[in-house]
Specification:
This protein has 76 residues and is an alpha+beta fold. The protein has 1 helix and 4 strands, in the order βββαβ. A 4-stranded antiparallel beta sheet has the order 2-3-1-4, with helices on one face. The radius of gyration is 12 Å and the shape is globular. It starts with a strand and ends with a strand. Bound molecules: zinc ion. The site of zinc ion has 7 residues, from α1.
């Protein structure tokens, strides 16, 4: 796993040693997710693409009335 999004405000899951690339706020509920990359794979362009992907995944979870997980693995 090179990149992960971690829900803010919970202490159950942490991305130790990962570099924070930015925060994405869910339009549906306002929960925030921190996008983090492994230090060896830090890439701003990829982080922006992943933010767009994550936005869709979060919206889909609202459509299916699913709770957001604390940790979401991001595609490369
Ligand atoms: Zn949401």
């Amino acid at each position: 796993m090179r990149a992960v999004a971690i829900k803010k405000g919970q202490n159950r899951v942490k991305a130790a040693d990962f570099q924070e690339m930015g925060t994405l706020r869910c339009d549906g509920c306002g929960e925030e997710f921190v996008i983090s990359h492994q230090p060896a794979f830090v890439d701003k362009g990829i982080a922006e693409r992943q933010a767009g992907w994550l936005e869709k995944v979060l919206a889909e979870e609202h459509e299916r009335e699913k709770k957001h997980p604390d940790r979401i693995e991001l595609p490369d």
